[in-house]
Amino acid sequence: MTRYSHSRLSTYEKCPYQYKLKYIERPDVPLPPGTIEAFMGSMVHGALEKLYRDLGFQKRDGLDEIIGSFNASWAKSISDDVIVNNPEHTAENYRLTGEKCISDFYKRMHPFDQMTILGLETEDMMDLPNGHSYHVRIDKLGCRGKEYFVCDYKTDGRMKTQPEADADRQLAMYSKWVRDNHRDAEKTYLLWHMLRFDKDVVSERTDAQLDDLVSKTVALIDRIEGCDEWPTNRTYLCDYCVYKAVCPEFSHEAELKLLTPEQFAEDDGVRLVDEYMALNAQEKELKGSIEAVKSKVISFSEQKNVAVVYGTAHKLSVKSSDKVEYPKDMERIYDALKKNGTYDDYTETKFSKDLLSKDVLGGAVGKDVMREVSVGKGYRVTPSKRGREEEDG
Ligand code: SF4
User: How many CB atoms lie within 10 A of CB 18?
Assistant: First the structure.
């Protein structure tokens, strides 16, 4: 039996290779310093946890006390290692943002009687139908009579949208745990406190939706369990990946960073890439030169009114034909074809311009399509060897 969690499943969804490293191979890699966003989030969580824990002991902390506790934890834990990615904002800007999150929330919720608190930073496991278990950790679990609230604090700089909340797996799975463990729960709300915006986002799931979610989660876990290929998924998130130095997408680059300039220049990979790119540039240049000569051959054949131009040992046959020119935006063509019901005639696996060109040149398409295209001249220049009898001298 394996313990799954929202973050474990998200890791697989974002990058299967990262999943393999994190949960299967577990290579020894140094933990990178955290970001200021994550640091601020954890400090705010800590302050609000204290607020509600103290309330559980009939101690209602004043706003100053909570802010003081937040600032004390901040001062104790902040270090130069915490990464501030945005050059326009300092760690102090984030501290002030954290203060504002707490202050706004405190004022809006005071006197904190919206719900009875049942748990803070809860820890439990939920059994899944495929024999595995699912980790449940709720920032704040509360109830008001038979209404339950699964609450999550967010300090993100982007407001969560309703469609995102309605599609969220994390709190929805936790609400399944609530329904299984609190039989009086008639309604369970998923509630995100979006602290930077002093707003809440609320969503709900029906029993049928939760059953469907559990089935999908189980199917995802089964896919992971049966997985034997773990592709990398290179995205902007790689910059935050702990395994970047051992990931095949970046490991050569990481090795190079450790080399002296002399070793770097001698590295086989560096030399091969440089050689490949030099040849590639030559190839491009050569292609450009060939095209230029081809144009001249075409002009020559037209001026001289000859179909074949002869060289020493080879000849070039020049054939012209009508060629259909298409606009950059093919959507207009597709629309015209769909309108007259012939779009499917050109899409066996994917749209075939060749088939359409044949019909354009044969006059077998409607005016709507003809309006979008133009017919010009295309040339084919084909080289071949001169026959023995053709050779001069
Ligand atoms: S660096 Fe990127 S591609 Fe490589 S494991 Fe990490 S997330 Fe995946």
Answer: 21
For 214-268, write each residue's pLDDT tens digit. 999 999 999 999 999 999 999 999 988 999 999 999 999 999 999 999 999 999 9
Q: Are residues 191 and 327 in the same domain?
A: no
* 8 A C-beta contact, residue 249 and residue 232: yes
Is 97 within the bounds of a domain?
A: yes
User: Looking at the structure, do residues 207 and 91 belong to the same domain, yes or no?
Assistant: yes
Cα 303–chain centre separation? 56
In a domain, 130, yes or no: yes
pTM: 0.76
The pick from 229, 237, 251, 252 for probing ligand 1's pocket by mutation, whose C-beta has the most ligand atoms within 8 angstroms, reads 237
State which residues form the domain around 316: 308-390
Structure tokens at 25: 């191979």
pLDDT tens-digit map of 25-50: 999 998 877 889 999 999 999 999 99
Nearest atom, ligand 1, residue 15 CA: 8
Ligand 1 atom with the shortest distance to the CA of 233: 3
Do 70 and 191 fall within a single domain?
Answer: yes
Q: Domain ends where: 157, 190, 225? A: 225
Question: Which run of H or E residues covers position 384?
Answer: strand 374-385
